[in-house]
Amino acid sequence: QVQLLESGGGLVQAGGSLRLSCAASGRTFSSYAMGWFRQAPGREREFVTAITWSGGNTYYADSVKGRFTIARDNAENTMYLQMNSLKPEDTAVYYCSAKRTFLSGSDYLRNGATYDYWGQGTQVTVSS
Questions:
Q1: With pLDDT > 90 as the criterion, what percentage of the chain qualifies?
Q2: pLDDT class for 121, splitting at 50, 70, 90?
Q3: 112 burial via Cβ count (<10 Å: 0-12, 13-18, 19+)
Q4: 49, 64 in Cβ contact below 8 A?
């Protein structure tokens, strides 16, 4: 089992940057594929980005491609989301998620139902 804790959210002006972190408990972090999802008020949760266990494959939603970068440090049991050129429509609660798997595949890791563990979320607010 793994516990996830997000940090790094906050208020930023449009065009600014934030870096989110997701710290994972346990000793098997490197066995988990990880993802970031977000949910804005009145909207369904949506996929943002995902990374395979080794970091060898990454996947992005079209809306964030070229602006967001996902990374992981297996030695530190931490995943990161670097968000640049933020827009007001990026405002949401951001959740990290984990699935113990060595599988890759865009459809699989873009699907929220794939993930077994979720963090509490961190608020990101982008002002115009």
A1: 98
A2: very high
A3: middle
A4: yes
